[in-house]
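User: quick one
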Amino acid sequence: MVKYLDLKRINDSFGCELTDALAEAARSGWYLFGNELHEFERRFARFCGVEHCAGTGNGLDALTLIFKAWISLGRIREGDEVIVPANTYIASILAVLRAGLKPVFCEPEWDTCNIDPARVEEKVTERTCAIMTVHLYGRACRMDEIRDVAEKSGLLIVEDCAQAHGAFCKDKRVGACGDAGAFSFYPGKNLGALGDAGAVTSDDKELVERVRMLANYGSSAKYVHPYVGINSRMDEIQAAVLNVKLGRLDKDNGLRRRVACEYMKGITNPLVTLPYKEPDERAHVYHIFPVFSPLRDRLQEHLASCGVQSLIHYPIPPHRQGALHEYASLCLPVTERIHREELSLPMSPLLTGEEITSIIDAVNTFNG
Ligand SMILES: *Cc1c(COP(=O)(O)O)cnc(C)c1O
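Assistant: Done. Structure below.
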């Protein structure tokens, strides 16, 4: 059986480097806001090419805290509209709602599955305060075009980078292309902790400082609380793990691209559509390798019968979820087609040649 994602294989491959870092963090006697977190924040800011980074408890909090910080700084107001891609993981939209803002669903492009810059412009109203770009599946959005729209209307840009650690848009990494970036280090992400963790990146010192305060009970100094905050921290153990794994992120993303390249060359089944090939290979870090087929469910069964595990990202679009029932009547045909036809093949930097061949053979022998 080829697993969709073998996290044990990935984390075992770091050997004692990882277990030593864990043991040291466990024995240090200092578990929050210590050297490991400070080192990770410094190194991750540098990796992304921004001035500042603040660790958070998870990716959803990172996104939410960016909006809450902008509200707290008076740059946007509760009730303002945020344009979001309609085909994202529900967390992107929940962050908007949690901050007291209004999500405005925007259709993606069929080719890239990313938010369509031309359609973003059509969604702008006088209540719009921000655009959220989600670099879905690991592919960077076309940020130049998004920035043109944002500048024309004086909008802020938040990047949801939870699936795209290390991807480039032109010469900038994601997380450095908007006004602020939010990352998740959920275990299965390209840079994954051994539990929950997240981060905010930005060049805006005032924003990141406010995020830090809001993430620490709204505290500006010990026992002084000018703001209504939450508790959302990256602990020392997760930071120690991420400090080890960050060193291999670019290399691992390169290995994911090699797997993707093998899939692109090897899969020739006319019933299966491959993802759009980026002219600049650095724009995609293949968190997910999606293929598309009107016969998606039968394809998934066929792969399973060949011993290949696959997943669907995602089976139900956000506007069709019970939690978002007030958006159920929206007409979003591209979004719905993606959710109907998408299937994710196994993707990991450590897939073996033999496994890749068996996956390609399984896809190519599907006959409907
Ligand atoms: C994983 C993910 C998140 C949320 O991250 P958590 O750390 O699980 O809170 C947000 N947006 C997208 C697109 C994701 O894939």
